[in-house]
Each structure stands twice: as C-alpha cells, then as structure tokens.
Amino acid sequence: MTQEQWQIFCDFKKDFKQAIDEWSVYSEKLMVLQKEAALAAKNPLYSFETPLVYNKSLDEITQSDEIKLIVIGDNPGKDEQLKKNNRYLVGQAGKIAQGYFEKNAELGIDFRKNVIILNKTPVHSAKTSQLKFIEKSGGPEIAGLLEKTQIWMAERTARLHIDLNQAVSKAERPVELWLVGYSELKEKGIFEKYKTCLKTAYAKLSPESWDKVYVFQHFSMNRFSIDLKDHFKEKESLLENIHRLGLLHKQEIFGL
C-alpha cells in the first residue's frame, strides 16, 4: 500500500474498533439472545464468547501488503466469535474461500494478505438467519443496534473502498468489492438496510466507484464455485466470468 492508502486503512481500523467499543454496551443482552436463538434452532452447544466481533485479521495486514479486494460476508459465526479467533471467515466458508484463491493463482490474490474481510454487521449468530430471532426478541433497543451496525458498516465500507481506489495510480489494479451472500439483501431480508445504505453511499460519494462492486453467492457449501461453473463461458477468462456473474447478481439485487 502507498502511504496514503495505509493511512486510509489505519483510520478505518481505528474507527471500527471505536464503534465496536461503543456497541459493546449491548454485549450482555446480546449474548443472552444469541444463546436463545441457537437453542431455538437446536444448534449443537458451543462456547458463546464475543457478541460483537472486531476482525483481528485487519491488524495483521501490513503496509507492504497490496490490497486488491474487499470481501463482505454476512456476520460472524461460531468460529469467528471465539476469543482465540475473533477473525472473519475462518470457519469452513473461509477455508473454502482461501482454497479457491490458492487453486486459481491466475487471479493473483492471497486471501489472507491481499483481502480486507468485513461483514454486514459485527453481531454474532450461529446462523445468519438467527439474527431475525435476535432482532424480534431483543425489542426496539436490539433492533436499533442491528440497524445501526448495518448503516455504519455500509457507509464506512463504501468510503474505505472509494478512498483506497482514489489513492491508486492509473497503472495499478483497482480494488474491487465483493458482496458474498445475498439472500438476506433482498426485500424484507435482515440486511435490506445494509443494501440500501451501501448503494446510497456510493451514489453520494463516488458513483463511478460503484462499477467495482460485485455480488456473489456465499463461499459456504461451495455455492460460489457451483454458481460460477453454471454460468461459465469457455471463451472468457476466469476473471471475466467472475465479473460477468458478479454484475448479473448485482443487477438482480440492486436493479439497474
């Protein structure tokens, strides 16, 4: 990263940590709701440790690393919230994602060095769908928190993406943003607020940067790879196929 990009990234990390600290006043109530949601869904027992998760992997990125991609998952799951981790996409889905980039070296992306991994909300749940239970059972206070975190993540992530690209020279590879997992971005989905705020942020700050945003199925269960295979055209390169698919799903979710 250039010095300018590094400062942009460090400012983002600082703001993100501060936001997590502010939201952590809800941790006790959230943990009760997270346990209730997992029990209601009959999830296998696991250790509930971090109700709101900051991604510590961000602190392992150095100025010498080139950021090529921002990946946006849903929210921290069982593995991500463990104190020994407190990192995003380190469970099975993360292993599949890392393996995909290792297998397809022509993309030129090291998933742990060239990628900033964020979520639509830092609020943990064993399964993303359980956020609906947490929102409904937590009353206006927790519903407001879930909305507030989505707004912050959408607006601040858009600004991070835009600022990083504005600090890239024309000769360098622009940073792309991939939204992976889009079912809950649809109307009445748990992340509908994130979707609306993200699009609004780009329209307000830098409409041209919206062209570098792509939408995909999640890495979990190999859905990303299966979807790409179903839409693959041999006459196009791997990256061209990925971009075409990402734009197709982007149009489905966000419209023209």
Low-confidence stretches: none
| Largest sheet properties | 4 strands, parallel
Number of helices: 8
Strand content: 5-15%
Q: Between the first and last Cα atoms, what is the distance in angstroms?
A: 33 Å
Keywords:
8 helices; 256 residues; four-stranded parallel β-sheet
Strand-helix topology:
Blueprint (H helix, E strand, L loop, with lengths): L2 H21 L3 H14 L28 E5 L18 H12 L11 E5 L10 H8 L1 H28 L9 E5 L11 H14 L7 E4 L6 H8 L7 H17 L2
Parallel strand pairs: 1-2, 1-3, 3-4
Q: Would you mind describing this structure in some detail?
A:
This protein has 256 residues and is an alpha/beta fold. 48% of the residues lie in helices and 7% in strands. The chain contains eight helices and four strands. The chain has a four-stranded parallel β-sheet. The longest helix is centred in the middle third of the chain and has 28 residues, at 139-166. The two termini are 33 Å apart. The model has no long low-confidence stretch (mean pLDDT 96).
Brief overview:
It contains eight helices and four strands; from the N terminus they run ααβαβααβαβαα. The chain is an alpha/beta fold and 256 residues long.
